[in-house]
Amino acid sequence: MHRPLVITEDHALLDDLVRIAAAAGAQLDVAHMPTHARPFWNLAPLIAVGADQADAVAATSPPARDQVLLVTRDPEDPDTWRKCVAVGAQAVVTLPNDERHLVERLADAMEPDPRSGSVICVIGGRGGAGASVLSACLALCASGDHLRTLLVDADPLGGGIDALLGHEEAAGARWGDLVAREGRISSSALQAALPSFGDLAVLSFHRGEVAPIPSQAMRSVLEAGRRGFDLVVVDLPRHLDPAATEALTRAKTTLVVAPADVRGILSTVQVLGEARKHTADIRAVLRPGVVDDEMAASSLGIPSAGALPDQPRLTATLNRGELPKLGPRTVLGSLCTSLLRDLLPA
Description:
The protein is of the alpha/beta class. The chain has helices at 11-23, 34-37, 54-59, 80-87, 99-110, 131-144, 161-164, 175-178, 187-193, 215-228, 242-249, 262-275, 293-300, 314-319, 331-343; strands at residues 5-7, 29-31, 47-50, 68-72, 91-94, 118-124, 149-153, 196-197, 200-203, 231-235, 253-259, 282-287, 304-307.
């Protein structure tokens, strides 16, 4: 993979850029004059032109391209924007004020094959409604169709979605390893760190005492997830904390699993009252009950996305560390396939 290119003779500026690149997990190619840069100009994922070399670069009339930045350490230089236009740069980066922005630009440039994955949140309208089971089954169904999928456990008190999958002993990072991170997380680094099973990666909690997820950590994980995966499924707690709120604001669609009985409907209405403050597209997945599906959806005031059937032997299956079968001819497999078809881009 080609590396970002820096063109400068300013040694102090170069020292800053090498340090910033290291923070982004990147190494640089360095050209001290424009003639040395010519072989790399069309290949580098990003080019940082020092203000000291801008006019010299412009004099060589390099081909127009995107991802060119003019980097300066002098915010008062009145000639900065003329140099920016002359060199064909899309933006000016002023150090040290724009260091974090430059770290993100360099890290983005190093991402292999960036994707634009969809975030789907799942939340239970009542305790035990089956939101975690639906989250896990959606993720398994998507990964089984060769969609690169990230399953995120956002419920610190849920017992661990990795245990639901029967993989609680799998090696890899958990939330406790990520919550201290600030700023951007590389999608490739996230994929490499998490427990993975084919096309499915899982982010859950360590056993024992757990701390709430900071909203910044959730934001960084979901941004990395959208860049590196086709689908991100987030299993939310019913009591929305800042991390759950962060996930809802980034969700393409939120599925609320609602038992179709009186208490289930009343409880789900309460959950919807909070969820609607943070996301727009909310759909119901109804569990069988004494209230028919049409009346249940009408009472909730949101469209029905489907019905999650009762599984008579589900509890015993889960306690064995297994999930119900998801073949295309099973009711649950058919539901997940239908949901993914309706919610994801073609």
